[in-house]
C-alpha cells in the first residue's frame, strides 16, 4: 500500500475515533449530569504530525518568499479546531446524520496551512474576528473550509504554487 493510501486510511480511522470519543464524552456528561467541557487540542495530538497528515498548502505570501525566507511563518488550522469540535458536538447532539457522515465532515474540514505573521493578524484581530471561528453563516456540511482565509484575502497555494480555489473536493 502506498503512503498516500495509508495516510487516507489513517485519517479516516482517526476521524472515526474522534467521533466515538465525542459521543463517549456526551454520554458520560449526561450520566453524571454535569458538563465538564472539552479541549480541542486532543484532536491536534491525534493528527500528529499535522505537516504530513493534514497539510493543504501555503499562503501565496509565504510561497513567494520561500527562496528568501524572510517572512515569519506560522502554522494555521484552516478551520479552527475549537470551532470544528463545537460543530461536531452539535451535529452529534442533533442525531440527524450517521457517525460515518459526521466523520467524513470532520475529515473534509481538516487542514493546516502555513501563513505569514501579518496574515495571522488579519485572522486574529478585531479586523475579522476569525481567530476561533468561521465567517458568519458558514455551514460545516456544505461550505468550503477555505472561506475563512478568503474572507481576509489570504490566497492558498499548493506545493507547486498553484492556487487552491476550494477544499470542498478533498475526501
Structure description:
The protein is an alpha+beta fold and 171 residues long. Helices cover 49% and strands 10% of the residues. The chain contains 8 helices and 4 strands; from the N terminus they run αααβαβααβααβ. The chain has helices spanning 3-32, 41-46, 50-53, 60-64, 81-94, 99-109, 117-124, 147-151, and strands spanning 55-59, 73-77, 112-116, 156-157. A 4-stranded mixed sheet has the order 2-3-1-4. It is globular, with a radius of gyration of 17 Å. The two termini are 18 Å apart. The model has no long low-confidence stretch (mean pLDDT 93).
List its salient traits.
171 residues, 4 strands, four-stranded mixed β-sheet, alpha+beta
Question: What class would the helix/strand composition place it in?
Answer: alpha+beta
Strand order across the largest sheet? 2-3-1-4
Number of strands: 4
> Number of DSSP helices?
8
First-last Cα distance:
18 Å
Average pLDDT rating? 93
Q: What proportion of the residues form beta strands (DSSP E)?
A: 5-15%
List the secondary-structure elements in sequence, H or E: HHHEHEHHEHHE
Principal-axes geometry comes out as: globular
Q: Give the helix proportion (percent range).
A: 40-55%
Spatial extent as radius of gyration: 17 Å
> Major beta sheet, specifics?
4 strands, mixed
Low-confidence parts: none
